[in-house]
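Field reference: sequence -> structure
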Amino acid sequence: LLKVSNHISLLDSLGGKTLIDQRDKVSAAYSVYSSVLAELKRFGNGAERERRLDMLRYQIEEIERVNVLEGEEEELLAKRKRIRNMEKILSSLESARGQLEGYGGVGVAGALKSASSLLGAISSYDDGVTEIMERLDSAKAEIEDISDTLGDMLEKSDFDSRSAERTEQRLDEVRVILRKYGGSFEALTAFLNSAKEEEETLSGAGDRVRELELEKVKRADSLSEEAKKLTSLRTAAALKFEKDMVRELGDLGMGGSTFKVKIASTDEADDITATGGDSVEFLISPNVGEPLKPLAKIVSGGEMSRFMLALKNIVAGIDGIGTMVFDEIDTGISGNISRARQVIAVTHMPSLAAMADSHYLIAKSTENGKTLTHVTLLEDDTDEVARLIGGNDYSKYAVPHAKEMKAWAERYKSGLKNLE
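Structure field:
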């Protein structure tokens, strides 16, 4: 109650199913209208759309011009690494080939051939020598093949400074475009596809924007109409709420109070939300002759308690609350609360106790060092009501007084039942 933003939901809860259903219709209409506005915003106005198209076309052209290939950055990095270590690579290749060919002397292949010839001279004396000769011939062929491969690698490793420069330039170009559009080839590709889709959508936006503008007017009218219906239902609910609240406050000892539900409304679609075009605030004047002021600012603690009780009593009737529990009821609380539901009241007021249909005595005792609470249904509550009237040492007049109070309460309740 002290938070004004809660007042509209409290009022709506009192409006019943018809009001709630209408609020749902407003919410649905608002959702549709908002989606139209969101799509229009995405297109922007003509100038914004052209600026966006220019940007998209520039980005698409830039990405397609660089034309980064999948895995190209890794390949360029490996190539650059080779180029930067080319001197070492060439030296090692040349040295290895020289070791195999012997640099003008007898190379490994020649030594293997000589060894095979020497063994050939004794092969007729030992069958095992022939197998060794075959293995030497195989090794010689493999060494010659390795030497040829090293020669091919030396020929292909020939490069100039322009090759290194081109590699560096391309690597810089690829890295710049990747960093600019996501940091990876996958992100770059996703950005390009998205940009192309948006460019295609915006290029044909003229017709769609005109359709949306017509749709916006249609949906705005629908939203405003539904909001007006909701305002009408809230106004009716507010009038009934005001009457019920004044009646309840009167029963609670605030008979001079005036209560008003202030509803400020708009039918402008752009100002309407999912809950409608209304703002709601509760106003009250606790005393005759005082102007209405915001409830949250002027009521005292006691007044707020009574106001809350009145509201609870009204809401209980709507929500079907069957039982209400009160602890230590203050003066000025009406028995009318119990007409529509069960009331459990803990009280020391004899006038209130006399109204009860059933009485339970609550007493405490100490047993074995522990405090126990006992609740006992009283067959005859006259003595307890008398004790509430006169205390522990109540006079001889308290019992007749209690009986008279109970008799009056029974007549009062019977009269209410007859009226119902």
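Note: The radius of gyration is 49 Å.
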